[in-house]
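Structure first, sequence second, as always.
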């Protein structure tokens, strides 16, 4: 008779329990991979989703299908992924809107998903600093000019953004908290109308928005950036200082794109996806595309690091919302 002691029995049991998961990870993918773009076709997220899908077809020898599920500022598509099975076949290109600002602004019942618990966060693709932008003919040549004028007059800074509860809105409130200025927000239905109003000699003092939406005007010289909310200067605009350089190290705000999936994806598959997305991000043509959209290529974080990054972003914006008293219906 073969005798098995308790330790051997438990070890065998654990091995048998792990075997199906190991086998599943080894055979993945065995069917088409669905990549959700939570915005309409034609935008940056849609372009990245399709490009990554094409790369996956080569890297994993599998079919990848991009599905555009737009609506509610990206929440419709994000909710769809949150409710999907964690089998590695439902993935998405996400952003600082869906997994940074929105969770800080909206109640969970309105948001419709748990930004951490219902997702597997895989990799950070790119990032871009939020910028404080004024007209080229603005009397404020530097950030110090603006701060000095408003502290002397006591007037609020009238700033525009692409919408209530967006990263531009939240960043403007963050700026006010650190600069010691009153900020009065003027929301627009997107970045384009905000810029149009600024250039139309409205009463706006500035725009707080992601740099990538306004690089055309920056390059044309019709606007000036007073400061960028990044840790270091943007490589494509080396002459533009950061808030930190001008005495405000706490003003760090970036818009970003990342790659995530539904919760519960096996670690072995997550590791393969992380490696694939990071490798794709470092390709020369991809890096060129990202830089041309005024973003910085990332593609260096592990899945664990990216998850911690998402958690820190939600915590940061939640604190800003709480201090500023922002409420979104």
């Amino acid at each position: 008779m073969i005798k098995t002691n308790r330790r051997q029995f438990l070890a065998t049991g654990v091995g048998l329990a792990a075997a199906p998961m190991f086998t599943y990870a080894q055979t993945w993918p065995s069917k088409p991979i669905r990549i959700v773009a939570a915005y309409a076709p034609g935008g940056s997220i849609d372009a990245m989703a399709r490009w990554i899908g094409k790369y996956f077809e080569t890297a994993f020898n599998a079919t990848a299908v991009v599905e555009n599920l737009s609506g509610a500022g990206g929440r419709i598509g994000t909710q769809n992924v949150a409710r999907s099975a964690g089998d590695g076949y439902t993935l998405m290109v996400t952003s600082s809107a869906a997994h940074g600002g929105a969770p800080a602004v909206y109640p969970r019942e309105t948001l419709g998903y748990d930004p951490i618990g219902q997702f597997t966060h895989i990799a950070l693709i790119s990032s871009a600093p939020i910028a404080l932008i004024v007209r080229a003919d603005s009397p404020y040549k530097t950030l110090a000019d603006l701060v000095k004028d408003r502290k002397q007059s006591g007037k609020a800074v009238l700033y525009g953004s692409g919408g209530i509860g967006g990263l531009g809105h939240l960043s403007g409130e963050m700026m006010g908290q650190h600069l010691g200025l009153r900020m009065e927000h003027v929301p627009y239905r997107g970045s384009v109308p905000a810029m149009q109003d600024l250039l139309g000699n409205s009463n706006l003092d500035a725009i707080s928005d992601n740099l990538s939406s306004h690089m055309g005007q920056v390059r044309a010289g019709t606007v000036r950036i007073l400061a960028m909310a990044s840790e270091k200067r943007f490589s494509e605009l080396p002459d533009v200082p950061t808030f930190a350089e001008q005495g405000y190290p706490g003003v760090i705000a970036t818009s970003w794109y990342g790659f995530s999936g539904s919760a519960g994806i096996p670690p072995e598959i997550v590791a393969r996806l992380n490696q694939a997305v990071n490798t794709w991000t470092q390709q020369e043509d991809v890096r060129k595309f990202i830089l041309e959209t005024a973003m910085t290529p990332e593609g260096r974080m592990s899945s664990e690091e990216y998850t911690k990054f998402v958690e820190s972003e939600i915590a940061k914006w939640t604190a800003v919302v709480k201090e500023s008293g922002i409420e979104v219906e």
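Margin note: Residues 129-246 form a domain with the D-Maltodextrin-Binding Protein; domain 2 fold (CATH 3.40.190.10).
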